[in-house]
Amino acid sequence: MTDMRVPFASEASTRQLTDALALQRKAYFMHPVPTYEERRADLRQIKRFILDNKEALIDAVCRDYGNRSRHETLLAEIFPSVDSVDQVLKHLRGWMKPRKRAVDIRNYFGAKNRVIPQPLGVVGVITPWNFPINLTMIQLTYIFAAGNRAMVKMSENSRHLAKLLMDRMPAYFPPEKLQFFDETGGVGIEFSKLPFDHLLFTGSGQTGRSVMAAAAKNLCPVTLELGGKAPAIVCDDYPLELAAERILFVKYLNGGQICTTVDYTWIPEQKLGAFVELAKKIMPKRYPTLETKDYTSIIDERAFDRLVGALEEARSRGATVVQLVPGKAYDRSIRKIAPHIVFNAPEDCELMTREIFGPILPIRTYARLDTAIDTINAGPRPLAVYPFSYDKRVIQTVLDRVMSGGVSVNDALFHVGQHDLPFGGVGESGMGHYHGHEGFETFSKMRPVFYQARFTSMKFMMPPYGKFADRVFKFLIK
């Protein structure tokens, strides 16, 4: 795919962004707190858009990828987006209610404390290419549930989808509520400079740093959903075949292009050979050839070249590279790389130091669990960690000693699909949360309000201070 990015956005594009923000902010000030019924209608409209345009959405994403498994789009994008709306609708009324907080009755007799969730205003969303439906619609679900308006900047690798959204979404939402923007060159830079009330970015850590730096000039709060090298840890007590089936499914889903996929796997050293043999049996049944439509292409030529180069670097430096399906190792014409396992790779090679984001699974071995834990902790905190064990003490050890954004125990990735769990990174894998109640709070101002009583002891605590004030403080300060 040709790289169409240029350093700077045109004046027309910049003006379009600023005009859109001005329009939405004006609408916000005119109607800052949508009712429960209005928010419910917005959520239903998101769902209606997805269902009305399901086939077109699937086709657009497939065209952007070159080939994207229809069933993977249904599984990882369409279903979670619709299900998220349904789940939020169940909780919305309760989330919107003011929350009571305790009042210090020694000072304020009859006073009240409340925390009132109120909309922030206009939220900017920068959406990545790997799950562009999911990572647009679910985010909008929480943004609209909290009563906000939204501007969404799509990826340069989502051209077909961006056009579909820009063409069809105005029939569902007016521009003062929701607008989409394509990446025509430098738009993302200008987008992140806008003085939003909140900015949500999903993507690489390198770009996330730039987005955060641009947002900081406006003191715009940000939620960053990044990535990193998420490890699976297969413990000795866990059935190896079951671990292989689950890890390999998640690893090669979407061609490995998932921020929360298993980046690499720890295996007890005596079980390495058995794991590789299991993988060689399992994978051809799932993907008989590269040509199968169930196996997703790499998004563009630059990513394809990076992955092939990383694989060849590891091989040339002594790593053992195992291809898991028959036929070609890769096919540039359809941008597909066969599933591979790599072990004995040098510590400083690209596969071991950079998030892979492709269908290559490095294996590391350990004799003691401490080795895996200490090695993980020596690097940046990952977006997820995946321990496999039936021993509760072992699982708790991993939970206590390895900090990550999220955890799936005895599987991988599936914590992301639990709509009542918050999702987000920690440290270099991101900051902030969305999904669940935490998602509603992310896009709300949890506003503290104190309601003073008609009569209050503060009447006796005003200047000029005297002996009575001294007696009051003696009573209060013990």
TrEMBL record:
In terms of Pfam families, this protein maps to: Aldedh
Keyword Lyase in the entry? The reply is no
**Is Oxidoreductase there in the keyword field?**
yes
Record PROSITE patterns: ALDEHYDE_DEHYDR_GLU (PS00687)
| Taxonomy, superkingdom | Bacteria
Q: Which residues form the Aldehyde dehydrogenase domain?
A: 13-447
Picking any one GO molecular function of the record gives: coniferyl-aldehyde dehydrogenase [NAD(P)+] activity
Entry annotation: catalytic residues: E225
Q: Which InterPro entries match?
A: Ald_DH/histidinol_DH, Ald_DH_C, Ald_DH_CS_GLU, Ald_DH_N, Aldehyde_DH_dom, Aldehyde_DH_NAD(P)
Keywords, ordered alphabetically: NAD, Oxidoreductase
Q: What family is it from?
A: Belongs to the aldehyde dehydrogenase family.
Specify the protein name: Aldehyde dehydrogenase
